[in-house]
Amino acid sequence: MVARLAEYGHNATDNINDAFTNMTLQSWIRLTVIVGGYMLLRPYIMKLSTKFAVKKLEEDAKSQSKEKADPTMTPNEFRGIKEKLYEAQDEVDGSGADWGSNARLRQRQMLKDLLEEEERRRAAENEDADIQEFLED
Fold first, then answer.
1. The organism sits in which domain of life (predicted)?
2. CA 117 to chain centre
3. How many angstroms from the chain centroid is the CA of residue 42?
4. Taking phi first (over 0 means left), then psi (-120 to 50 degrees means alpha), and beta for anything else, what does residue 94 get?
5. 137 secondary structure, DSSP code
6. What are phi and psi of 118, to 5 degrees?
7. Residue 99, number of CB atoms within 10 A of its CB
8. How far apart are CA 23 and CA 29, in angstroms?
9. Could you tell me the CA-to-CA distances from 4 to 1, 12, 20, 106 in Å, in that order?
10. Angle 47-48-54 (CA atoms, 0-180°, nearest 5)?
11. For the segment 69-106, what is each residue's pLDDT rounded down to a tens digit?
């Protein structure tokens, strides 16, 4: 088994060595054009294939969401109740993991701004109280 692997390695090195030593000018130019063309076109091909893959995934997601979307008849409508009972998603407080990082940053910034405004208001009230002390006779 080891002898066979050694033979394969020896054959591979001999073949690669012979391939490069026996190349003509036309073969070198052909190799250069093929490698250069590949290097120039690869980013565009990758971008195009990624675009098509994303489009296909979006279409699959849309088709799956349409299948899982509101059915034509809800169980309550089947029972004869005409009103749809909506889930309590509108009452979510937003503290779950479904918030994105940008939303969390905006929330932190808003809270920070509110605290700063409250501190400014208190400082202004304290200044007014100090001034009122001196104005009273």
1. Eukaryota
2. 35
3. 23
4. left
5. -
6. -65, -40
7. 13
8. 10
9. 5, 12, 25, 66
10. 90
11. 656 777 777 777 766 555 444 445 555 556 678 888 88
Specify the pTM.
Answer: 0.38
Query: What would the two tokens of residue 12 be?
Result: 């591979």
Return all residues near 77 (Cβ < 8 A) that are at least 6 apart. 84
Tokens of 22: 């026996």
Q: Retrieve residue 98's tokens.
A: 């479904």
Identify the three-state secondary structure at position 120. helix
What token pair was written down for 50? 């990624």
Q: Quick one: tokens of 30?
A: 């052909």
Residues in the chain: 137
- Tokens coding 133: 């002390």
Q: Alpha helix locations (H) across the chain?
A: 2-21, 25-68, 75-79, 101-135
Q: Residue 71: left (phi > 0), alpha (psi -120 to 50), or beta?
A: beta
